[in-house]
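User: Quick one: structure for sequence A, then sequence B.

Assistant: Sequence A:
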Amino acid sequence: MSTLLKHSGDQRISDYLKLSRCPHCAVAQPLLPQVFHSGKAVTRGDGAAASFWAVHACTNCGSMVTAKGMSGWGGAGQPTIVAIFPDGTSAHQDLPESARIFLDQAYSSLDAPDAAAVMAGSAVDSMLKEMGLETGSVYNRINEALAQNIITQGMADWAHSVRLGANRPRHADKDRPHVTQEEARQSVEFAEALGQFLFVLTARIQRGLKDATGDDAE
């Protein structure tokens, strides 16, 4: 996916790409030097406007970020960046507000794994509460979601893993107080997947039914 950039304070393709966070490792204010640019406009067979391309490497994680530019090249005619690939991930708008805020915070703190794990755990807990599972502990809510066939056994097992991962830094576990970046990333990925399963797909189906029938889907 990409994100279209607003044209206030346009950024142009140059030696360095300026982003608030790396879309891969989420480090703040990443250093993103250019490692490739197309040098000339890349034409399209469908007749749409040609574009310029540049690739930048994050010096923190080594991952690549691609910038798409439009208009001229070089000097004052350097192309304005209109899209970045991949974009900075954000929680889907179809998620309940509380879960969406927690998940956005998890995305933005992936460079701080303990914080990301805690926020991912909070996002999962918030989603379960939105499904009407409001009593008891997170442990109980996960098991109740399984009992009601809201989630599968595999999802319940993963949810418990996320719960335990969030508890370690939250309660300063004596033996394993911290989570690794990979553990945090897996927790965030589960929270994202759970949100897609419980809310985003349902919303898309309802919109599809509404478009097909012309009526509001119950």
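Sequence B:
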Amino acid sequence: MAIILQQSCVNTADYTDTSIPVTIELISITPPGPDQLQTFCYTVTQVEEPTALSHWVLGICPTLTEEDLGEVTVTINGEEQNVVIGDNVEIFNPPATDPGGACSGIKFDFGLEEAGDTMTVCFELLTPQQVGPNLVCVTGGGQTLSSEFICGPVCAEGEQCETTVFQTMEVCVPVTVTPFADTGTVDVTCCGEATVSAEPCPAGEPSCTFYVTQNICVEVPVFFRATGNAGTATATCGDLSTEGCDCDGDGEID
């Protein structure tokens, strides 16, 4: 039986109090077995309006490709959607990103429209992965939010040697703020009594338009992140041994 390790992570990515008010919840992880593949299932909920979810991206292990996916299912409000891997379900490996939202990972190009709408997404992996924190990106109304994490597939790893490298860089990113407004409930007051006539209505306009100007202050949090990609490794071969590795205090192999 394959053993899947789990790193510390959470089961819900909550964007409720943001401009794209949705939640993403991990509802199940099916472990791999003799007759089943490792499967991840999530529920996405449109908490409120006005900004509806256009699509979302789960930042899975960056070595996975679309060829590593088994069955993928998407249902919206209980209705099964037509899933086409490579079209409305795609994987963008770093440094490639979703063209509509600038995030790497598996993109589910399905949206929600009204408060209370729900989407259930399940996908199988042909090769089991460890479970750990993955960035969740949500896109709607021409903007993308990427500050929440959720449990998902991270790269399966064995014992490894780790080195931390620090790189300074100057980062510049364009930020676009798009205003919008919503009208409240329209209150109607009747002026006088209604009149009834056999004559047709006189010519007029179908509606009345007026213009309201309001100064607003917009607070825009911007989060900077970076990804790292290893190049081709090279090795200097030492002596063969059946006794294991003998490292001295300086990390050299005798």
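The chain has a mean pLDDT of 85. The longest strand covers residues 143-154.

User: Thanks, that's what I needed.
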